[in-house]
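## retry 2 of 3
previous attempt timed out at serialization; input unchanged, resubmitting
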Amino acid sequence: MWARIQRRARLTGSVAPSSVRLADELASLAAGFDQVIELGAGSGAVTRALTHVVSPDRLEAVELQIRLVTILRETYPHVEVTHGTADFALDRFNMAGATAVVSSLPFRSLPADVKQLTVQSVLRFLVASPSSRLIQFTYGLREPFLAPPGFEWRRIKWVMSNLPPACIWILSKLADEVAVATEKPHDPNRS
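## retry succeeded, writing output
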């Protein structure tokens, strides 16, 4: 039994589903977006909360494990459930307005190659749709992954009632800056 729990934790990043409180907090951050794509939908704890803030026809849940895909499709028949990887889903997603990408992916424990593919897909997605956001939680003190220049993580809140406590983050693309100098730089040789 312990081997099965460890194997599940490596694949899902957790030994237990997200708490109702964490799921509700994530969903509340997705309210108001034109579309929502959920990465790593798992057993549907966050999916349930998302169906309360977004119409099922504007929600897509993505899950890699076929057993969980089957459960999601049975539980949420009006939600589009995609069996596949996060990078596959993001790269083919049909954007129509601002999209909330709500992720339960365990970035810190993903194999390096999978993490790199997924991060690159997230960044491409945010570049293509600058009004979109990645809403992600982690169990650590640091951001889920390092954001390159042009992107910014914001720590939103801790959900202490989750087991283990979880921190919610939002990743967004920074607005392209126009290099306009309003003042001349200070010249230390001038008085």
